[in-house]
Amino acid sequence: MKEELEKLVATGKITHRHIEPLLALVQGGFGVHKSWGFGRIRTVDIVLGRLSIDFHSKAGHAMDLSFAAESLKPVGKEHILARKATDLPGLKQQAALHHLDVVRLVLRSFNNRATIDQIQAALVPDVIGEDWKKWWEAARTEMKKDGHFNIPAKKTEPILLQETEVSLQTRLSSEFRTAKGLKARIAVALEVAKCMGDLQDKQSVVTEVLGVLNADIQSHLTTMPSLALEGIFARDDVRVAAGLAADPADPTEAAVWAHSQRLHTFFDETSAPRQRRALESFKNHVTEWGPQLVGILNSSGARLCGETARLLMQEGKTQLLYDTLARLIGQHGASSELLLWFGKERSEAFVELFTPEVFRAMLTAMERDAFNEKKSNRLHDFILSDQQLLPELIESTDFDVIKDLTRNLQLSPAFDDMDKRSLLGRIVKQYPAIQSMITGDQKKDKEDQTFVVSWPSLERRKAEYEELVQKRVPANVKDIALARSYGDLRENAEYKAAKETQKVLSRRKHELEVELNRARGTDFDNPRLDVVSPGTIIRVLDLASNKPETYSILGAWDGDPDKNILSYLTPLAKAFVGQPVGKEVEFTEIGEKRRFRIEHIEAFKKS
Question: Most CB atoms closer than 10 Å: which of 133, 135, 252, 365?
Answer without folding.
Answer: 365
